[in-house]
Design a protein that fits this description.
The protein is mainly alpha-helical. The protein has 24 helices and three strands.
């Protein structure tokens, strides 16, 4: 992991080194599940019988570093030999007794226990100072007992993952086999609870590159121009830099990681809202921006089917990276417009076909905005159909709330009618006749429901639980708001298409033209 060692040292100054240190720490923390975060916190909070911490801060930091940077192979090998030594000398329950009953968690306690005879070592082991030499199957290994706190903390984490690691699988299990078993357990756990190693390394390289571009705050350094520049001229050792979409996605994920770190650092501090700047974006619906994973487009494509697969594909960047709608809208446009051209070029190369990018049909950024406007119309249609289902399910209050939120004229008309939310089913027809604005809104959602034939909207016999429509309608309103913000600011960046065209086509030619078949 690039610059991972900085995490242990820390910085007291507020200069460039401090910014880089905190950015790297944020990157390491990003993408971890609550389960894994809780496991590290539990290690830091463990105490001895006298109330002192069981593991020092340095030990916990070191464990976090080797685990999150996937450099735990050596520690697992050492722990495998240590467990084998304990099993060989004291039986299958020896690690349990040593760690949890005798509290042998450092070299001093280990040497004292050996001297007293309470820690029995096998005949194949000998102790010289703080070194324990062991041999098994003709292979010799030296255990440096000064690393015992790290082995014990790693063992605690592994026991949390799989309690069976405390016992050998059979009496003849070799130390190397023990170490491999420990690594497999940790690898499987991290695959579920931490971001992939390839993604982590890609973000680390991008973070390092940003620092080389001028230092300072890396979050502020991520802009549309730098993302394009990174793709056009990536640094040596950069990963996954062929597709522009991959590069853009990486920088947007890096922004998420850095923002998450800033939010964590600012938690509990008395900051005025407007002073958070990049930590929180002060705008309407900002609370929805804090959890971009809340919008699951795949879930919206199943019953009840709010979105088609084509709509989900077109809206993916906007749904996944709502903060980029305001901060990096040009990157989103490049993602969709030039990403599509590049995908077609790559497919042509795979099929051994020629591809003329200069003549290929390519919408400009304004045309892409028009397409988004069409999808926005469909979103609103399906959102109203969802409200029609809720109305049919007698979710009266829910329907009124959604209509008032999206229809200012109706909201104005209903301010004088607070009793509407309490009307019984038989009284609602009279209210509709009395309030034309309400009647028009309800007729609109009823027509929207009647006009759709998607799964889940065909009739009352097909309706799912009301919660499914309530969630779906809320998700569509959120996407609609993001599209509105993107399209409102389009005039400021959509004119960049002409300048981008020559830059992007030159880069695509360098990437793909040499692989294409030549005309004879």
């Amino acid at each position: 992991m690039t610059d991972a060692d900085d995490i242990d040292g820390g910085r007291d100054d507020k200069g460039e080194g401090w910014e880089r240190h905190n950015a790297t720490a944020s990157l390491l923390q990003h993408g971890l599940s609550e389960t894994l975060i809780g496991a590290f916190e539990a290690l830091a909070e463990q105490t001895e019988l006298d109330g002192r911490p069981r593991f020092s801060e340095r030990t916990v930091r070191e464990l976090r570093r080797i685990v999150l940077c996937r450099s735990y192979a050596n520690a697992c090998l050492e722990l495998g030999w240590w467990l084998w030594t304990l099993w060989r000398g004291g039986g299958a329950d020896a690690p349990l007794r040593a760690v949890y009953m005798d509290h042998i968690t450092n070299s001093r306690r280990a040497l004292d226990a050996v001297a007293r005879g309470t820690l029995r070592l096998p005949a194949e082991a000998s102790v010289d100072g703080a070194q324990c030499s062991v041999s098994a199957g003709g292979e010799a290994f030296v255990l440096h007992l000064g690393r015992l706190p790290l082995w014990t903390a790693l063992l605690e984490l592994l026991v949390f993952i799989d309690p069976a690691v405390l016992r050998p699988t059979d009496t003849d299990e070799a130390p190397g086999a023990v170490a491999n078993r420990l690594q497999r357990a940790l690898y499987g756990f991290l695959a579920e609870h931490a971001q992939p190693l390839q993604q982590q390394r890609r973000l680390a390289i991008q973070l390092q590159w940003l620092g080389e571009q001028g230092g300072g705050d890396p979050l502020a350094a991520i802009d549309d121009a730098r993302i394009l520049a990174y793709w056009c001229d990536p640094p040596e050792g950069a990963q996954d830099v062929v597709r522009f979409r991959t590069v853009a996605e990486g920088f947007l994920c890096l922004r998420e990681a850095l923002q998450a770190g800033q939010r964590a650092a600012a938690a509990g501090q008395a900051l005025a809202f407007e002073e958070w700047d990049e930590v929180l974006l002060a705008s309407e619906d900002c609370e929805q921006w804090l959890d971009p994973d809340a919008l699951d487009l795949a879930a919206l494509c199943v019953t009840p089917r709010f979105l088609t697969a084509r709509a989900a594909q077109a809206l993916e960047p906007v749904a996944r990276f709502p903060e980029a709608v305001v901060r990096l809208p040009l990157t989103l446009a490049r993602w969709q417009v030039w990403g599509a051209i590049q995908a077609r070029w790559i497919e042509a190369v795979k099929r051994r076909q020629t591809f003329d990018a200069e003549r290929a049909e390519c919408p400009d950024y304004r045309a892409w905005c028009t397409e988004l406007g069409d999808w926005q119309t469909e979103l609103r249609q399906m959102g109203e159909a969802g409200l029609g289902v809720l109305l049919a399910l007698d979710e009266w209050v829910e329907v009124l709330g959604a209509l008032v939120e999206s229809d200012p004229a109706l909201a104005e008309a209903l301010r004088a009618e607070p009793q509407l939310a309490k009307l019984a089913a038989g009284e609602r027809a009279a209210a509709r006749l009395r309030l034309p604005a309400l009647n028009q809104a309800l007729q609109r959602v009823e027509r929207a429901l009647k006009g759709t034939t998607r799964a889940g909207f065909k009739g009352e016999q097909d309706f799912a639980e009301a919660e499914a429509y309530r969630t779906g309608c809320a998700a569509l309103r959120s996407i609609d708001g993001r599209l509105r913000r993107l399209l409102e600011g389009a005039s400021a960046w959509s004119g960049n298409f002409s300048a981008d065209r020559s830059i992007v086509l030159e880069r695509l030619t360098r990437l793909h033209a040499g692989d294409a078949p030549r005309d004879k």
